[in-house]
Amino acid sequence: MSEGTKRPFSVREIREEFPALRQLIYNKNLIYFDNGATSQKPKIVLDAINMYYSKDNANIHRGVHFMSQKATTEYEASRITIQKYINAKKSEEIIFTKGTTDGINLVAYSFGELLSAGDEIIITAMEHHSNIVPWQMLCQRKGLTLRVVPINKKGELIMDEYDKLLNSKTKLVAVTHISNTLGTINPVKEMGAKAHAVGAKILVDGAQSIQHMSIDVKDMDCDFFVFSGHKVFGPTGIGVLYGKEAILDSMPPYQGGGDMISKVTFERTTYNELPFKFEAGTPHIAGGICLGKAFEFLSSLDMVAIQKYEKELAEYAQDMLDTFEGCRIIGEAKNKTSVVSFVMEGIHPFDIGTLLDKQGIAVRTGHHCTQPLMDFFGVPGTVRASFAFYNTREEVDTFIAAVEKSINMLK
Amino acid sequence: MTIEEKQQEIIDEFNIYDDWMEKYEYIIELGKDLPIIDPDKLTNDRLIEGCQSRVWLDAEVKDGKMQFSADSDAIITKGIIGLLIRVMNDETPETIAKADLHSIGDIGLQEHLSPTRANGLASMVKKMKMAAIKATINN
Predict the structure, then answer these.
(1) What's the mean per-residue pLDDT of chain A?
(2) If DSSP codes are grouped into helix, strand and coil, which group holds residue B25?
(3) B36 pLDDT exceeds 90?
(4) Residues A39 and A208 sit within 8 Å (Cβ to Cβ)
(5) Which of A347, A359, A353 is nearest to A410 (CA)?
(6) What is the pLDDT at residue A350?
(7) Residue A325: what are its φ and ψ, rounded to 5°?
(8) What 3-state DSSP class applies to A347?
(9) Residue B35 above 70 pLDDT?
(10) Which residue of A has its CA nearest to B51?
(11) What is the mean pLDDT of chain B?
(12) What residues of B are in contact with residue A410 (Cβ under 8 Å)?
């Protein structure tokens, strides 16, 4: 974790830093409960975006001029900020990507090149499509087998089944840290240790965890950790793949182009070193710099207090929803956070979502890109309220009243 | 009543409401009231899979006029389907093929017909038009 003074957590103060929260939607105060899809941005990030394009815009890593140097310095400083935040050993282990999906695809392609027919990949039944499809594509390409860890009715991984799936053919375990649909927090450290015991690597999809808890990749001892910038209060189109240096070094490049090369001739091209080997072409410079600002912002916060606050908020919402007749909470893991998914008997999630929208409340409805999970629970989709530290108990109260109003209209 | 008059009638009905929730209350009532498709026709070949809600559409030509029936698993989608069918039923294929379906947009529900809404309605309108165009060619 990065050092520095943490300010005491105050939701009122934090809200001040997010201008998007102060707006009227259909003449109602916005209540933004779609943080699982994307988070709002603090002023420090918005100012940095404005500053970058107003003043500092230049291409990086190859310019001799002042602006290019400045942009390069800031881009690389951001890499170090992120490295420190997640406690990676070296900044070379921080690869900028387009986002979580891009990071997983990079690993599926590049790490996948090291695998051969008969090898096995393990995922879980609660994965986002982004952590299913790239592995299916890899399995098809290389003749590998995909294994799926099942879940119980509460939405928790059945660890005994995981143990049974692991074997000497297992090469990689790809698991979500927190389920985007259920809010379940998975025991990724334990899963990693078990994977390592059979010689497999572990990739942790941190898209839904990094914004809610402290992340320490060294302590977690994961081989890969991926996340998206936009879900962690940064810009869209930027994300990070963390990978252990030795593993990244052993992997072939994913895409070819500028920046990733050392020397190019028509006969032979040699590749650049980490992290540039995996960063072909002009990157999302503004995104990279501003993601660093988002982590500077996060570094100033007390994540322990925040995690507790968000968990309480979600539990409060869940308890209130539970009082409605016909309400079924999807995802009741003992260890869960920040997400409440539910269905109402006889009412389509889309209808509830539409009526909540007209009351100024942003939630997500549908299958949340986890169709196999929806099939498991036997629902077409859910209404999902996903919280961030800037949400309040009063907002939950308003949300509950709006849900009640919607149900009454739809019944 | 011409297709334009029918659209104007819908616009007038919705003009009474200035609150969004009232508008939706009305749409929901329309959705609840309408038996819009024969249950035998809820088949996969008539299904339009949306990311959010699903729509079933059946199109026929009877006595030179288009007859549509449709359904959805979401009640708001169903209410809007009711409006669309009210506008388009009993019209000639030529009229539907040329029709400017502005009324849904005029009452503020354009978002539901946007392909990004993923409720199957955008595809449904397209299929209604295509069925009409096909019928024009067959004539």
Answers:
(1) 96
(2) helix
(3) no
(4) no
(5) A347
(6) 93
(7) -65, 135
(8) strand
(9) no
(10) A366
(11) 88
(12) 28, 75
Residue B47 reports pLDDT greater than 90: no
What is the total residue count of chain A?
411
pLDDT for A194: 98
- Which of A63-67, A212-216, B96-100, B116-120 comes out lowest in average pLDDT? B116-120
Catalytic residues of B: 51
User: If 0-12 CB within 10 Å is exposed, 13-18 middle and 19+ buried, where does residue A5 land?
Assistant: exposed
A399 vs A375: CA distance, rounded Å:
27
ipTM score here?
0.89
- The angle that helices B20-33 and B75-88 make with each other, rounded to 10 degrees, is 80
Report d(CA A399, CA A392) in Å as an integer: 11
Nearest to A350 among B24, B28, B77 (CB): B77
Percent of chain A topping pLDDT 70: 99
Quote the strand ranges of A194-284, DSSP E: 201-205, 224-228, 239-243, 261-264, 269-271
Range of the domain at B40: 3-138
In chain B, the number of structural domains is 1
Which CATH number covers residue B126?
Answer: 3.90.1010.10
CB < 8 Å to A409, chain B? 21, 24-25, 28
Q: Which domains does chain A have, with CATH numbers?
A: 11-37+302-410 (3.90.1150.10), 46-299 (3.40.640.10)
Name residue A278's amino acid: F
Alpha helix segments (H runs only) across A86-223 = 100-110, 133-142, 159-165, 188-197, 217-220
First to last CA, chain A: 50
8 A C-beta contact, residue A91 and residue A223: no
**Looking at residues A13-19, what average pLDDT do you find?**
97
Contacts of A151 (CB under 8 A, 6+ apart): A124, A125, A126, A157, A158, A373, A376
